[in-house]
């Protein structure tokens, strides 16, 4: 994702960015379908929740969708230490004013005034200026901290705490404000069960593990390895997922193996020690454990191409002999 800063932004907006797809972004029909589906709901004014397993591309697609909305993006990442103040804002100090009036020498009149200085936080500025909010892994934040979102999503109003110095203790949500949430429902470490009331205010778009062709293109695009090498790695990842009992082998693992191969000029063959190490350390499985793949896939790409050519020559010869 490319980050584009808008020089015309005022100080408040300068913390936020405009985004555009990076040169490495892969838009296959599957990615495009998810994007169009989410955009249909966002355009109707609804918030979207992209839910799916780790590495299914939720965050990347969220940015891609946000880029289509062509509004500045405010990004928040869920965190167990977050409070409502981290979303909405808080008092950041006190402003004191003292007036001493000694115009008549024998009379001294003093007047003191004290006001709280309020600082908007990211949700408030996104609501004020009509940004696209990307709230990544929102269920890592305690549900009570996310409470201000309820009235934002349902009534289009953000209520501010008393410390706010303005005359209005609420912000009317800008008509261009949109929110995209992401979460992994399979994650059970350091996450909270999201409040039903919040989930009920967003439309869930399921982002499952991407299809093989999309994963192959992503691995190739993010690492620079050829699509053939990426295909071998993705097949290994799929095999690891099929026999998995612990953490899921993600597309991130595939990108990591591919980048290691590319930077060491290694090849995805059983004889290549860098490849064996990378598979062992990234997937936590030895190449031998993934042996069924060995026969089919883990051969030098040139060998596989030669074999494919042989198979096709044999097939042509058979077809001719049948005539
Ligand atoms: N369409 C795509 N084009 C290019 N790269 C992609 C695409 N989708 C995902 N990726 C890459 O795959 C990796 C995982 O994607 P991403 O972080 O978006 O997944 P996620 O579902 O948000 O994962 P997590 O739940 O672990 O945060 C990243 O390195 C990302 O750059």
TrEMBL record:
Top-level taxon in the UniProt lineage: Bacteria
Keyword Nucleotide-binding in record: yes
Protein keywords: ATP-binding, Cytoplasm, Gas vesicle, Hydrolase, Nucleotide-binding
InterPro entries linked: AAA+_ATPase, ATPase_dyneun-rel_AAA, CbbQ/NirQ/NorQ/GpvN, Gas-vesicle_GvpN, P-loop_NTPase
CDD domains registered for this protein in UniProt: AAA
Keyword Hydrolase: yes
Domain AAA+ ATPase as annotated: residue spans: 44-213
Catalytic activity: ATP + H2O = ADP + phosphate + H(+)
Compartments, record wording: Cytoplasm; Gas vesicle
Family: Belongs to the CbbQ/NirQ/NorQ/GpvN family.
Identification of the protein by name: AAA+ ATPase domain-containing protein
Source organism of the structure: Marivita lacus
């Amino acid at each position: 994702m490319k980050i584009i800063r808008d020089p015309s932004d005022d100080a408040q907006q300068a913390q936020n960015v405009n985004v555009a797809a990076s040169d490495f972004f892969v838009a296959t029909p599957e990615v495009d379908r998810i994007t169009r589906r989410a955009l249909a709901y966002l355009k109707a004014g609804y918030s979207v929740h992209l839910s799916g397993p780790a590495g299914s591309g939720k965050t990347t697609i969220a940015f891609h969708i946000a880029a289509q909305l062509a509004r500045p993006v405010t990004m928040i990442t869920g965190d167990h230490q977050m409070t409502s103040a981290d979303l909405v804002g808080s008092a950041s100090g006190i402003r004191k004013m003292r007036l001493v009036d000694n115009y008549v020498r024998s009379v001294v009149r003093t007047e003191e005034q004290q006001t709280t200085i309020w600082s908007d936080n990211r949700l408030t500025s996104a609501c004020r200026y009509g940004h696209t909010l990307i709230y990544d892994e929102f269920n890592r934040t305690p549900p009570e901290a996310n409470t201000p979102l309820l009235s934002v999503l349902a009534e289009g109003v953000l209520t501010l705490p008393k410390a706010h110095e303005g005359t209005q203790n609420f912000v009317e949500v800008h008509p261009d404000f949109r929110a995209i949430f992401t979460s992994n429902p399979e994650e059970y470490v350091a996450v909270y069960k999201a409040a039903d009331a919040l989930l009920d205010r967003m439309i869930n778009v399921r982002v499952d593990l991407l299809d093989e062709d999309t994963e192959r293109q992503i691995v190739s695009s993010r690492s620079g390895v050829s699509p053939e090498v990426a295909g071998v790695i993705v097949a290994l990842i799929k095999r690891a997922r099929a026999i998995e009992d612990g953490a899921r082998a993600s597309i991130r693992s595939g990108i990591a193996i591919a980048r290691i191969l590319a930077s060491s000029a290694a090849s995805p063959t059983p004889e290549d020690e860098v490849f064996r190490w990378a598979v062992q350390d990234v997937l936590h499985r030895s190449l031998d454990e993934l042996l069924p793949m060995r026969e089919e896939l883990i051969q030098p790409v040139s060998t596989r191409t030669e074999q494919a050519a042989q198979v096709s020559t044999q097939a042509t010869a058979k077809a001719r002999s049948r005539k």
